[in-house]
Amino acid sequence: MTSVRDRLREATAEIHQALHGAAPFARIAEGEMDRQGYGALLQMLHRYHVMMAGPCEAGAAALAAPELALAHRARIAALEQDMAFLGVKPERGAVDIAGNAGFCIGCLYTVQGSTLGGKVIFRQLDRLLPTSDGRRFFEGTPQDSAHWRLLCQKLEQQDRLCEVVEGAHHAFARFGALVSAVSENPVPRPRSPASGARLIQSA
Fold it and tell me: What is the pTM of this model?
């Protein structure tokens, strides 16, 4: 029997792959990112994680895993620390309102999943930043792997897969839209399995 995690991975593979090749991350991988561009990337990442804070908190509550909500808050704090090191100020943006439990769990899956990939980016930033200062968001914490295993374990207890997939697509689409705003090559929007719009309010 196919696991929920495998079904989520398959459902989001297209947009996930597109984001891997997005211009800001490609410049980091190729050693072509400068500090100004990196500062702009951190601002974008901060906007995204603040935007997704409500659904992530609700998703963690639905999974009875408060440590995942704390981990998301810690990532926002790490971004703010990195921006302060670079002299970059956070930008106000939109925030998402939490939807149903399955939808929020899907959002949390997408956002939490980026922590492991961030460790690859941390290593790719060696040329730009010689110490951990300015890139602690990507460095993550020793608990990241345990948090991911916990999330994957909790996912297998979910039976409303359509709602979870919808939330995962939503979170990927939000991220893709923000990346496109700072990229020469827009990230294609995923083909969502559901068309239900989610309410957005200005911060």
Answer: 0.85
